[in-house]
């Protein structure tokens, strides 16, 4: 059931979602090209666990900044403003477990097949609100502290 889509400059593959996990969690594989970064955001209804497969992720979560390498993981608790970025000159790959399930719904609704096609921001904001996500800035911004 795997589905790969581009979302805010990253290719995200939905490995498992509410249809296969009974709504308990989503499993997403993410590929971040060098220099890509999420906008600052927070999830008000689910936590996010990031596990690094290859490369390096920099995560700003609340007042914390961590740099994660392959084999390392980091939990972003519910309600924590955060940014995830691949700042090195190499791409980064990781797995995200979002629990309970919600994040995959956003990716499926607004992700694109073409990496150059921008996401529909009106739809992104609507679905984000429905699943309890809040976008707190633009890509390149850091989360408020």
What features would you describe in this structure?
- The protein is an alpha+beta fold.
- About 15% of the residues lie in helices and about 40% in strands.
- The chain contains 3 helices and 11 strands.
- The protein has a 6-stranded antiparallel sheet.
- α2 runs antiparallel to α3.
- The N and C termini lie far apart (about 40 Å).
- The relative contact order is 0.27.
Unreliably modeled segments: none
Q: So what's the overall shape?
A: globular
Note the quaternary state here.
Answer: single chain
Give a count of the beta strands, DSSP E runs of length 2 or more. 11
For the biggest sheet, the summary is: 6 strands, antiparallel
Overall helicity: 10-25%
What is the count of helical runs? 3
Strand content: 35-45%
Helix-strand makeup class: alpha+beta
Q: What's the gyration radius in Å?
A: 14 Å
Mean pLDDT: 93
Distance between the termini: 38 Å
Give me the side-by-side strand order of the main sheet: 1-2-3-10-5-8
Helix and strand run: EEHEEEEEEEEHHE
Secondary-structure blueprint of this entry?
Elements: E1 3-7, E2 10-16, H1 18-21, E3 26-32, E4 41-43, E5 47-54, E6 56-61, E7 64-69, E8 73-76, E9 82-85, E10 92-99, H2 103-110, H3 121-131, E11 133-135
Antiparallel strand pairs: 1-2, 2-3, 3-10, 4-11, 5-8, 5-10, 6-7, 6-9
